[in-house]
């Protein structure tokens, strides 16, 4: 009977993932034969975690998590187990299964901090060759960079505090002592104690309401890499969106989130049809406070999202399409090391664009792709004249460097254009079939560029006898000549408006025409509005318009434009970003300082902060403004954003 129950459970887990290998967890006993990940100390070949149980207590007053990380390990006869830690206080380490009350303390040492402290420290634990349980008792510190503790003033309720974590790329080691390499996949469970008036959520099966004792239990039954372990605690409510999708947010934002994200079930349907059934159970989105350093983060079962996505017009929901797509590219098939972040992100941007094409049509999807392509071209120019021109390769050499460097338009957009160009070459049907099989074949595994190439040759290029310069794309610098060209007459029109404006005319000035018409037998003069209105164009069109305006535009003309089109008061953070960058370049920023300050103090998304601070910092007239605002704003940022901006302003 018991056996039957287990069988049902296992079948239940994978029912629906019909395109996946029969037992996705079967690779548990296999150790990867791919090269070691340079950003982890873990001795995975000798001993590695297969299941992690966390006992956590979240103390908002002390802004500390007290925890025990209970590692269930596969041991190939090691006498030392090596974990990654950074900014943690390790109290004691025991060996043995706590459930059988046989824990016994063991010796451990913490290695020196590496010279520039990028990867933190090795925690070396003495074990026996037959040890399979290692329990690490610890607490977090103010150096635990993954954690963002928000006091009440920074939340929308203004009455309850908030905590969330950001693990990718190598920050999980700052709140959990573990083997922090994407090359190792683990299942995890957790018992988390929080104040009883707050809800705790993880990248796992989640509750939808408070527990009177404040203790929440979590299970992540599928194997995931450590960067996807995530926790959030706050005054959070839930709203179901149907079809296994839902949204969590601070209660004040819930209804707005539900309306903005109502297309999630459709996105899910499109994604399922494209590349195989979603296999993580539910898909929920948690909208975090504004300090969240990213637009979205694909924590499995529970995407974390930035509230700047709440524009009121669904214009930024492509970020959710992106995070949903990661449920296949990234979470199911994971980059073995950060050198191949493009395998996570490039594939995901391609997939995201396919979802958006299905939802909004090809014209809009092309506009979105072109906006990013424009950014890629600027990024490539910068990389080419930098100290590391080789960073324009998809596969990167990151030894001794911060893996965050991989997070650039190269991995994302060059990566996506690699797939778009490949699609053009082999045809959409062939590429779709290939990708669907690719996700099924490598489900719950980690792969590197060479594994991808072997599969690409064997399952796409050789059978179709097609030559494709994938080596040049993956290992070569810059953009190969055969890169697909996309055109958008609508964006061309916006650039031409910008050129007209740059040449001195104002295409947005109110324009009317009078026309005589006959009504009820009488001649009547009617006024026809020929002016271009803000609402008539989509956000992405305005982005391109602003980007093409001259940095030499006078402050007076900037003001005129602002008067006609209200950019400084836009509700859309993408438009604000473009406008504030131009405002800094033209010194118009001096006139709209309150609007810029307001934005930078509130929003912590790094994608916006960096270009705005950079532009302010590069203009001698606004350099001081950048510093003044940063001093006011920095306490509101997550450490990821704070560190990046501080670096920028100090150089
Ligand atoms: N996984 C990334 C964020 C990330 C990557 C964090 C590498 C740390 C290291 C996430 O999926 C992402 O790409 N977010 C983007 C979304 C955008 C491309 C639609 C963001 O935040 O801007
Ligand atoms: Zn991504």
Task: Report on this structure.
This protein has 4 domains: 233 residues, tricorn interacting facor f3 domain (Immunoglobulin-like), CATH 2.60.40; 92 residues, 2-Layer Sandwich (Zincin-like), CATH 3.30.2010; 141 residues, Neutral Protease, domain 2 (Orthogonal Bundle); 162 residues, Peptidase M1, leukotriene A4 hydrolase/aminopeptidase C-terminal domain (Serine Threonine Protein Phosphatase 5, Tetratricopeptide repeat, Alpha Horseshoe), CATH 1.25.40.320. Helices cover 35% and strands 22% of the residues. The longest helix has 23 residues. The chain is globular, with a radius of gyration of 26 Å. The N and C termini lie far apart (67 Å). Zinc ion binds next to helix 5.
Layout of strands and helices, then pairs:
Blueprint: H1 2-14, E1 47-59, E2 64-75, E3 80-85, E4 88-95, E5 104-106, E6 108-110, E7 121-126, E8 133-140, E9 147-150, E10 162-165, E11 185-193, E12 199-202, E13 215-225, E14 231-234, E15 236-242, E16 245-250, H2 254-260, H3 264-275, E17 283-287, E18 296-297, E19 302-305, H4 318-325, E20 333-335, H5 341-360, H6 362-384, H7 409-426, H8 428-441, E21 445-447, H9 449-464, H10 470-475, H11 489-502, E22 512-519, E23 522-529, H12 539-547, H13 555-565, H14 573-586, H15 593-602, H16 606-618, H17 623-633, H18 639-650
Parallel strand pairs: 1-11, 16-17, 17-19, 20-21
Antiparallel strand pairs: 1-2, 2-8, 3-7, 4-5, 4-8, 6-7, 9-10, 10-14, 11-13, 12-14, 15-16, 18-19, 22-23
Helix pairs in contact: 3-4, 3-5, 4-5, 5-6, 5-7, 6-7, 7-8, 8-9, 11-12, 12-14, 14-16, 15-17, 16-17, 16-18
The structure holds ligand BES and zinc ion (ZN).
